[in-house]
Amino acid sequence: MIIGCHLSTGAGFSRAVDNAGRLGADAFQYFPKNPRSYRIKAVDRHAWEKEGRLARERGLVTVGHSAYVTNLSTADPALRETTIASIVNELEICEAYGTPWLVVHCGRHMGEGWEIGRRRMVEAVDEVMRRFQGRCQLLLENTAGQGSEIGRTVDELLSIHEALESRRRVGFCLDSCHAFASGMLEPGAYERFAAEVRRPEFAGYLRVVHFNDSKGGAGEQVDRHALLGQGRMGALLVEMLRDPFFQALPVIIETPVAQEDDYAAEIEKARRWAMGEDSHQEGGEAAPLVATGQGRKTEQTGAKPSRAKKPGRKPAGG
Ligand SMILES: [Zn+2]
Ligand SMILES: [Zn+2]
């Protein structure tokens, strides 16, 4: 299983590649440029291709993440142009590194309603993909539904995606914290969520999972990540990692660690959960994974550990 985390490239992409190895990550996500700015960065294709190759030679999967400031549904024409140019620039940077995907947040309708927010976002994404003709794909991330965010549910994501001319070059990224916050993933109802994400129009385009616990409660529409096992999601996180559907996708942890080195423990924890070696014990509002009733075996406990995939690194070059 491919498990990694978000890493800084402030000291250079190659440094992030080294750090990923040190932390036991099979993948890492990075900001192609300053996440708080629209400023365009000059693309140094030659140097970056080399660094990207280094990452692949070490068996690392890389994922780009677009700037936070982006609102793909903005009504302001000047801001819209700046946003589109900024995302095209990020795609070009990812392309140079050989990164296959750039994750972007869905838009905010700013009080004008879902339908207008959706239409503006569809037009903006199509314009981005008209200007960018490389191989890197844009991934639309589900939102917590905080404020006027659109893209809270599989239905909303599909409604955006199906309207895109550029549909084939645009996929999805699913964030566990956002799914919990938006009400898509509810305590005691994992199966409903599992069925929802398996809808073929969605599953066929889902490329990356963001794996975070949540400081906010179920359905509270608060986008605040928590360290794994220290938020409100309880056993739902373990259920996700033990679901073969998610085991087949690259999983990126973006939790509020005090320092990057602490991701080693987060990754280790996620691997244990995926292996079924460690049932969830640390609170959370969701029901415990392992049934407490004596002598009553649940499907999950029956499916337990040893048959799960071995953790560890992908073979180099694989
Ligand atoms: Zn995320
Ligand atoms: Zn978030």
TrEMBL record:
Residue numbers binding Zn(2+) 3: 178, 223, 225
Gene Ontology MF annotations: deoxyribonuclease IV (phage-T4-induced) activity
Catalytic activity, reaction form: Endonucleolytic cleavage to 5'-phosphooligonucleotide end-products
Residues that, per the record, bind Zn(2+) 2: 141, 175, 210, 254
Residue positions binding Zn(2+) 1: 65, 105, 141
EC number: 3.1.21.2
Alphabetized UniProt keyword annotations: DNA damage, DNA repair, Endonuclease, Hydrolase, Metal-binding, Nuclease, Zinc
Cofactor: Zn(2+)
Cofactor note: Binds 3 Zn(2+) ions.
Ranges of Basic residues composition bias in the record: 306-318
Domain Xylose isomerase-like TIM barrel residues, every copy: 18-271
Superkingdom as given in the UniProt entry: Bacteria
Keyword Nucleotide-binding: no
Region (Disordered): 275-318
The keyword Repeat is annotated on this UniProt entry: no
Pfam families tied to this protein: AP_endonuc_2
Xref: HAMAP family: Nfo
Family: Belongs to the AP endonuclease 2 family.
Role played: Endonuclease IV plays a role in DNA repair. It cleaves phosphodiester bonds at apurinic or apyrimidinic (AP) sites, generating a 3'-hydroxyl group and a 5'-terminal sugar phosphate.
Annotated protein name in UniProt: Probable endonuclease 4
Native organism: Carboxydichorda subterranea
Name of the coding gene: nfo
